[in-house]
Design brief:
The chain is α+β, with helices and mostly antiparallel strands. It has 2 helices and 5 strands; from the N terminus they run E-E-H-H-E-E-E. The protein has a 5-stranded mixed sheet with strand order 2-1-5-3-4, with helices on one face. The protein is globular and about 40 Å long.
Length: 91
């Protein structure tokens, strides 16, 4: 079993238009590395120069915001679902 990752529309061009991908990873940090390995360019869109998730990117683990868990260090297990969502702003 693997981690199911939901990819937002703006990043689907990196995943050959796939709205979901499955990867094996032990943490959010490891998942981002695996996304970059499988889909080059993904990490630069999700993380800043320091390797931290960008402020305008929200990542949810099983519908819970990782900012309220252990951020990038949040542990993953088989069958988890991760959603990557860009923040929406307007006026």
């Amino acid at each position: 079993m693997a981690i199911k990752v939901r990819i937002p529309t703006p990043l689907q061009k990196l995943t050959q238009e796939k709205p979901e991908v499955e990867l094996h990873a032990s943490s959010i940090e490891h998942l981002i590395q695996e996304l970059e390995h499988a889909y080059p360019g993904m990490k630069a869109r999700i993380c800043d120069e320091s390797g931290n998730v960008r402020r305008f990117i929200n990542i949810f683990l099983n519908e819970e915001d990782i900012r309220f868990l252990s951020r990038e260090k949040t542990a993953l297990k088989d069958g988890d679902e991760v959603s990557i969502l860009p923040a929406i702003a307007g006026g």
